[in-house]
């Protein structure tokens, strides 16, 4: 089901707080954060993580740690599209989002 759903990603910023919302017919998730500040996150799949966002070389980098595991999500704009790359150990998944007309 998750591979078929095409969520809308909405990013906004107010007073230094970035809000990222993923909306679909299946589920909506939202997180708010400040760059370079660790916070407790409950992910869309219900993991409890320590999360930090940074902005490096034009990429929004999200680092999550939980239960001795680590994952890194990199988001960047390439050719007008949002490319999200998730890496955990030697596994890499890439998802591309296109702006609606």
UniProtKB/TrEMBL annotation:
<dbReference type="InterPro" id="IPR012674">
    <property type="entry name" value="Calycin"/>
</dbReference>
<comment type="similarity">
    <text>Belongs to the calycin superfamily. Fatty-acid binding protein (FABP) family.</text>
</comment>
<dbReference type="Pfam" id="PF00061">
    <property type="entry name" value="Lipocalin"/>
</dbReference>
<dbReference type="InterPro" id="IPR031259">
    <property type="entry name" value="ILBP"/>
</dbReference>
<feature type="domain" description="Lipocalin/cytosolic fatty-acid binding">
    <location>
        <begin position="5"/>
        <end position="100"/>
    </location>
</feature>
<protein>
    <recommendedName>
        <fullName>Lipocalin/cytosolic fatty-acid binding domain-containing protein</fullName>
    </recommendedName>
</protein>
<dbReference type="GO" id="GO:0008289">
    <property type="term" value="F:lipid binding"/>
</dbReference>
<dbReference type="InterPro" id="IPR000566">
    <property type="entry name" value="Lipocln_cytosolic_FA-bd_dom"/>
</dbReference>
<dbReference type="InterPro" id="IPR000463">
    <property type="entry name" value="Fatty_acid-bd"/>
</dbReference>
